[in-house]
RNA sequence: GCGGCUAUGGCGAAGUGGUUAACGCACCAGAUUGUGGCUCUGGCAUGCGUGGGUUCGAUUCCCACUAGUCGCCCCA
């Protein structure tokens, strides 16, 4: 009997995990600097939460959720995204009462969507995300976008494209929606099936259609930007001004439609335009949601956030040929020959470790030659060689694996000797 | 959910309807019984994703399944 990993999931093995840790650490450090605090919420929630927040006409809800009934008969769903949980927690823990407003949060963790896996798409994937609750200052929109860009930049990514758009407030959205329906309604028969279905349910999404992209009505379709009321337009202009002042380049794309229903005003996407990145281009998506908190049962509170996938970030790094500075080798390998020396090596390795030196030894009963080979494979900077005769004389041979030079060092000063050289 | 391609040792990869499944890398051992990275010698798949079928005989042909991969939809 043998087992296989479930479809669309992956094991992250040593050699890879270091990269994950490095990325997560980079993101955490930046969040610290921007003064965002980590929040940890459950990996599953009541299904109803996602129906409410993500929107029941979305693909996520309609065909991608991992939903099951628990033993108590409750409908439970593995979270497909992070915002709903954060907002739920914000409301449930009455964070709106906290005097430190806005509440600036970040999270990292696995998300689940039942999709057919392909390049950059998994059933379990890890998102790093940020949510700011309680501010409707366009400057916070810019800050959130800047933070996202900063994460990519500080990992070395260059080939990025930031696209922003505004969906406006409820009034603007409504006016635009009507204009879209009027625009397409007469000739909707010329469009694909999906678009026909979208006309009444979510006409905004027609603009996102890949098939009918070149239809003449697409070219002439009313742009949301022309339907923004004064307040919405001013808001969007402010966001753009702040981004410009921060030196962040962007493109405005009035066709940028995000997949979740809860967005208002600012939406944005960061894409990779590296060669050979394949069909997946979106690294990060986010936007403002001013009605979501109310929807979940809290007081009227504006919010904005983004989520990025670590898997896609890694793919982008690979596409740009960037290798992360993750430490691999060890400081010292202790090679022992002979029964007594082996026993002693257990103690020596322990002493080295206590002194902060990355140390290891042989546990395979290998011969000296093979121990040296193992040390080489582990990229050990030094090998401390101990035989019974050295042990009798209370010394140890330290070999510098770069130069091949070997020095006899008194056992009691081995730690000092190595620390001196490893600095 | 739909379509194309793929599935051989730890990894990469050749191959054939028929008695021993190339090769390369990695690994292990020896040359060198206390010293790595180079060299040489030897070792390393009772098995060709899983299950059926065709056949005297299948890893090779057919079907299904599973998985991977690419694309569509959509998204992170």
Automatic annotation (TrEMBL):
Source organism superkingdom: Bacteria
GO MF: ATP binding; catalytic activity, acting on a protein; histidine-tRNA ligase activity; transferase activity
Keywords: Aminoacyl-tRNA synthetase, ATP-binding, Cytoplasm, Ligase, Nucleotide-binding, Protein biosynthesis
Glycoprotein among keywords: no
Location in or out of the cell: Cytoplasm
Keyword ATP-binding: yes
UniProt: L-histidine binding residues: 81-83, 113, 127, 131, 258, 262-263
GO biological-process terms attached to the record: histidyl-tRNA aminoacylation
PROSITE patterns on file: AA_TRNA_LIGASE_II
Gene Ontology CC annotations of this record: cytoplasm
Catalytic activity: tRNA(His) + L-histidine + ATP = L-histidyl-tRNA(His) + AMP + diphosphate + H(+)
One Pfam family this sequence matches: tRNA-synt_His
Enzyme nomenclature, EC number: 6.1.1.21
Domain Aminoacyl-transfer RNA synthetases class-II family profile: 1-325
Family stated for the protein in its record: Belongs to the class-II aminoacyl-tRNA synthetase family.
Subunit structure: Homodimer.
UniProt-listed NCBIfam families: hisS (TIGR00442)
Protein name: Histidine--tRNA ligase
Organism: Thermaerobacillus caldiproteolyticus
Upper taxonomic lineage: Bacteria, Bacillati, Bacillota, Bacilli, Bacillales
Gene this protein is translated from: hisS
